[in-house]
Amino acid sequence: xxxxxxxxxxxxxxxxxxxxxxxxxxxxxxxxxxxxxxxxxxxxxxxxxxxxxxxxxxxxxxxxxxxxxxxxxxxxxxxxxxxxxxxxxxxxxxxxxxxxxxxxxxxxxxxxxxxxxxxxxxxxxxxxxxxxxxxxxxxxxxxxxxxxxxxxxxxxxxxxxxxxxxxxxxxxxxxxxxxxxxxxxxxxxxxxxxxxxxxxxxxxxxxxxxxxxxxxxxxxxxxxxxxxxx
Length: 230
Known about the structure:
By secondary structure, the protein is mainly alpha-helical. The protein has one domain (about 1-230). About 55% of the residues lie in helices and about 5% in strands. The protein has eleven helices and three strands, in the order H-H-E-E-E-H-H-H-H-H-H-H-H-H. A three-stranded mixed sheet has the order 1-3-2. Helix 7 (about 130-145) crosses helix 9 and helix 9 (about 165-180) runs antiparallel to helix 11. The radius of gyration is 19 Å and the shape is globular.
């Protein structure tokens, strides 16, 4: 299956991305459940962006007959990270200093971090902000146009852990942009201001999250005060 999946990034306009099993990566982030992604220049394998898929976990949790669609959904989610995060740039001095130990250095770098943060941090989940969501929906839209089966709810649904509006709402407000920019690079897309409706929906979701969190904190504080008086 991995050999088939390895052809998908180029078809979606993401260029040469290494798609491998987590079993093939020297150091795997502890937070990895179904997969993870690393931008160009930070992989322990080579200079390409990397997507590593935890095939054992995917196969264990997928519904019968849905392993393929579930795996492609995880791949598209991770390709959203590849599209959203800028490459790690090593200077000639860096490369000369690290020298032949570059693979080992990258393995240590990977072991230290579950992922490379997506700047700017504009969401409760630092790795899944508006930039990531927008990029991922463009990846999904291109996959749809090519007939690549994937499940939107499995790609985006877990991002907000309950606070994000339905993923179909975000897809709807981005649909025009996805169609109009289907031939553009992701760098060009992400350098262009997003549709106003997308930004408004995102900002409303983040504001609602913070209001709910404040209400939860107030409730817990009041409950603790009541218990202290008993």
